[in-house]
Amino acid sequence: MKAQIIIHWQTGLILDVQTCSGSVHDFNLYKQTCPDWLPKNTSYLADSGYQGIAKLHNQTFITFKKPKDGELLSLCKQAN
Question: How far is 77 from 66, CA to CA, in rounded Å?
Fold first, then answer.
């Protein structure tokens, strides 16, 4: 089972919950269930499972992933 939760960053209120059974990629679940009531100027903070979401929303921030056999730059760590 996979669950996707959209939370308001200031209030911590849960705005939307979507679930599905089986193996579904995070971004595919988002595309299938994207709430159309979210304002277009909404900012998104997502993990690396949502690669490609920036094509749908201009104000998207995705966390940096540590390179294989490497370390994150201190700037990337601060951003995360």
Answer: 9
Quickly list DSSP for 2-29: EEEEEE-TTT--EEEEEEESS---HHHH
Per-residue three-class SS string for 47-76: CHHHCCHHHCCCCEEECCCCCCCCCCCHHH
**Structural domain spans, the chain:** 2-79
Question: What are 22-62's pLDDT values in tens digits?
Answer: 888 988 998 888 888 887 778 888 888 888 888 888 888 88
Quote the pTM value.
0.71
